[in-house]
Amino acid sequence: MDVAEVLADLLAEQQTLDDIVAELDTAQWQLATPSPGWTIADQIGHLTYFDRNAALAVRDPDAFQDAMHALLGAGTSGDDMTLGPYRAMAPDELLAAWRAGRDELAAAGGTLENETRVAWYGPSMGAKSFLTARLMEAWAHGQDIVDTVDAVRAPTDRLRHIAQLGFITRGWTYMNRGLDMPSTPVRAELTLPSGEVLSFGPDDASESIVGPALDFCLVATQRRHVDDTDLVVSGGAARDWMEKAQLFAGPASDGPAPSSAT
């Protein structure tokens, strides 16, 4: 897939979330979401901060390095830096700021080529992976908002980007926890909304994860426990991965407990 196609899918995913939040009233913007301590406004503020910094990373790598080091040096006050200015905004101001940041990212993303590498928080990323990460963020934080207001967001085949990212970050899940990844190979066969099946991993793997791509993405982004999905997980290593899965950067974290435990 060409970088321009990934960018188009990113913009479509952002617009889908925009269509939901644009209809919220002022009180709804302050509703608590499944992310502890974060309101709907905070979810959009987070996306705004990192969309604008993603644009900066492409447009002015030196300035991005300064911004990155400032954030990484902020420690536990990082939320104040990323969310503070946006928490001071009224919903209409925040929505406008998010849209402006998305426009910046769209313009910067349009200059990327398939071979371009972009500095980010941690190792640099290829252009397609870089934009895929932004798409994943929009979808995952959007899921928190969807869950909070019980909105309808039909799944699309754009999930292919997140599913692939989820599979290739199996090693990161363990490394981020200071653990060795089990050597047992795992195959994933994930069905997109269109019916297309995505296959990852060796054909002869003895362990597998089979089911809807949507469910795999929900687990890998820690928005659902695997037991609350239709995924069929075969094998101890596959099960262990799905219980720990974390495709996003940042400190190791655990997803939600199964609904049966609450």
Briefly, what is this?
With 262 residues, the chain is α+β, with helices and mostly antiparallel strands. It has 11 helices and 6 strands. A 4-stranded mixed beta sheet has the order 4-3-5-6. Strands 1-2 form a two-stranded antiparallel ribbon.
Describe the structure.
There is one protein chain. Helix 1 runs antiparallel to helix 6. This protein is of the alpha+beta class. The chain folds into 2 domains: 3-149, Four Helix Bundle (Hemerythrin (Met), subunit A); 159-261, Nonspecific Lipid-transfer Protein, Chain A. The strands form 2 sheets. Strands 4-3-5-6 form a 4-stranded mixed beta sheet. Strands 1-2 form a two-stranded antiparallel sheet. It has 11 helices and 6 strands.
Features:
262 residues, alpha+beta, Four Helix Bundle (Hemerythrin (Met), subunit A), Nonspecific Lipid-transfer Protein, Chain A, 2 domains, four-stranded mixed beta sheet, two-stranded antiparallel sheet, 11 helices, 6 strands, 53% helix
Work out the helicity level.
Answer: 40-55%
Q: Main β-sheet: number of strands, strand sense, barrel status?
A: 4 strands, mixed
SSE ordering: HHHHHHEEHHHEEEHEH
Question: Which superfamily, in CATH terms, is the homologous superfamily of the largest domain?
Answer: dinb family like domain
Topology:
Layout: H1 3-21, H2 26-29, H3 40-59, H4 61-72, H5 78-87, H6 91-109, E1 117-120, E2 122-126, H7 127-149, H8 159-168, H9 170-175, E3 186-191, E4 197-200, E5 207-212, H10 213-220, E6 232-234, H11 236-244
